[in-house]
Amino acid sequence: MLRCLSLLFFLLTAGLAGAHEVRPAVGDLTTTPEGLSLEVTLNAEAILAGADLEGVADTDTLDETDRIDALRALEPQALTEEIEARAAEIADRIEITAGGEAVALELTEIAPGPVGNTELPRDTALSFSAPLPEGAQSLTVTWPADWGMLVLRQQGVEAPFTGYLEGGTPSEPIALAGGGAQSGLGAFLSYIPVGFEHILPMGLDHILFVLGLFFLTPKFGPLLWQVSAFTLAHTVTLALGALGIVNVPGSIVEPIIAASIVFVAFENIFSRGFSRWRPLVVFIFGLLHGLGFASVLGEFGLPPGQFIPALLGFNIGVELGQLTVIAVAFLVVWVALRVDALDFNDRTGQVFYGVLALVFVALSVLLNNTEVLAAFEVSAPLFLVPLAALSLLCLLAATNVDKLNAYQTFVAVPASAAIGLVGAYWFVERVFL
Question: What pTM, to 2 d.p., does this model score?
Fold first, then answer.
């Protein structure tokens, strides 16, 4: 029975391994007396496929996922031709208003990246240009809601504007002469959600690593030591990476992050508890995760003049995301821990987890492909189905409470095994596929 449920847990969480990540577009806006230019790096395949990226963390949840994968397999020239055929339509979707007049963009250059792993997004650079109305002092940009998020950065002026556009909402007026830079407090506050979103929902590898820390032991002391070591380590390399002092290619960092998931997960299974050197191991892996966080900031960019506040805000957002993951996991297993400690009877645990598993499954079905969770950018089945599987493991622990260490045997070990297997898949994929 335990083997069957362990296999079920792995199969349900294996959906994490195949996630097609959605990254925000990044746009650089430059203005001159003659006009404006907008250079955008984005997920062209999703746009060509007609996918709605609003509130989506991975394209596996979309009906257009097969079409997106097929477009990712096209050679750059073939993809360029696909975009050229719809150049006017694409340019018209980006709304820019200056001096009270609509600005007509023209797509002038297309530069797709090389064909890579079709399970991963490919960056395509699009260049737009347009004349500006005479006497215009500012402009606003509206990014299509179904294209996801845009990180918009003004270039070539002092105190440039930097902002995040989503939901089809126009930007605030951007002064052509500059001076629209965020304040320190504004930068700090605006980068907190960026850091949080890199954990929930976009940081699936970081989520599994944090869960690996949690399933070693739910006791507060060991968990505090591990989280503190991880936080200190990734803060150091996040700062060094964002400053450009340390730069390690993603082709090296990403496989090692996957390996770190495997290590902590399988150590949970074979160790005899919290060892003295576990915080050191977590610290070393945290250094590598920090480089992964830094690569995200490298894509977004930090606002000039507000580097420190933005970096602090991003790091706090990451911490809040990690604490949320731990809090959710703890809330799910809390009743199983109480049953294991004989504070609750086994019948209470069985009824609770039977109902909870059904609730998670029902919610994953009801909320799939709906806009209910769009504001939180959550793909319902991707997160709720693994929670249902965890509930089933807790149900098994409550049923076998008469056995020694039921929680460890029926929850922590199979959950860690599933996490380790997903990490191993990622490692193989990132190194060999």
Answer: 0.71
